[in-house]
Structure prediction request, 481 residues.
Amino acid sequence: MPGIDESLQRAMAIAGARGANLVDFTSGLVVGTVGDWPHGGPDAAAAGATEVVRAARDNSAFVGPERFGSPGEEIDRWEDIVLTAAGRYDLLRFLHTQFDGRFFLHLWLDRGQSNLAMARLQLGRLAEELVLQ
Amino acid sequence: MTGVKALRELAALDATGALHVEAALGAVIYLQDGAVTHIDAEAAPGIGAVLTASGRLSTDVWDSVLTVGGPTGRVAALLVEQGYLSQGELELCVNGALFDAAYFALAAAPRSVRFVAGERSWFGGSLRVDVERLVREVAHRRELLTGAFPSSEFDDAPLALVPRLPRDQIVVDAVRWELLLNADGRRTPLELARQLGRAGFATLLEVRRLAAAGLLLAPSATETAPKKALPKRPTTAGGPNGASRAAAPVTPAAPVAPAPPESAPPGGASAPGDVEQIQSLPPLPRRLAGGRPARVVRPSQQGRAGQDAPDAGGGDGPRWPSPPPEVLAEPPSLSSLRRVRDALQEFS
Prediction:
């Protein structure tokens, strides 16, 4: 079963991947990092991504609607935050641990060399395996 | 000497051992070759509390792993080898717990610090954290707290809510939900964090944000209330049924050992650096032994209990460092009730 470092290495094998961070968004702490992080390195990237996550989490616009008879956990369980630009994609994938933890994987990709849908699926699988029980 | 200064000196010496930080709520920082491997902080929920309070591991499993792996410092290895946690879960949990404990270990103004060369942690594990990185992160976390709400007045006070929401709406996530539900005007944020298995720093940050939103009753208003009289719960909290059900998961479970008469959780005991608090309380080891009867002595600590306890009377009871009060978070299971019955029979 993969640990953090191995998971990050596997994230870098996703087509177009340039950098991967594992971030504790309690404070924006970098738990693990690989690849290339321009503009201030992995710490700055983690701090910036954490602000995005916090802003989104504090906003009720991104939850619901409640539907009678359906398990709310599945509907409202966040998977990722995706940011696209002409040159790059950023994927923030949440890790759902049963114990108390606030972690996400941050993968950024060269847009010209990657496939967003594939990358998202692959990162999602990787995130699930990391916290597999 | 502050914890940070001592830690930096030890890092420069590539030291291996344990730095004991003696404070109102103490801590033990374990180092190997100058890097931090593990921290036990009395203020923060430990790995055991985080794993058991969330239901990820049963207390029976945790206790047995601790019993087998503790004396040899192989708890981390056993958790994975025995299939209780995946490697990823272990690393995430350990990472979260170490930085959480670091905040409290280094934030307090210690009475004294003491280094025991060669002492190794009961937990084991392969995490190594650079001291400067740890110090930077603790400073960053302090800034986050100040940024959320500049005053620390709510950090150590029993958590109590204003009866009316001072704004139209608020967003509630899991941690906030648990805090709102369990704010009973008696337990402090860190007591709640330990019982809920929520990271101590994350809990404090949430409390500051609640304070900034104007949801908390000023500590001066709650302190004057007599301890035994429960402050009126906000009527919006879901009625009597909701309140009693909500309180159940974190109500300290029946003690597993015969308890002295005063077995209530120590009130207002989390004031790092608060001089008045220190003076008004009995000496630390005694208070721990009397105030938290449900503590477990870590197997690795039993042999040493007497030798490094200046006033503990030869290790006659659990003393720091022993694990955070995981047992307090144990739901009243059949096995715990049996143990209570057996203990009572033994004494009658």
Notes: The longest strand of chain B covers residues 35-41. Chain B touches chain A at residues 50-51, 53-56, 86-89, 91-93, 95-96, 99, 137, 140-141, 144, 169, 171, 173, 175, 196-199, 201-202, 205 (CB under 8 Å). Chain B has a mean pLDDT of 76. The CA atoms of residues 29 and 39 of chain B lie 5 Å apart.
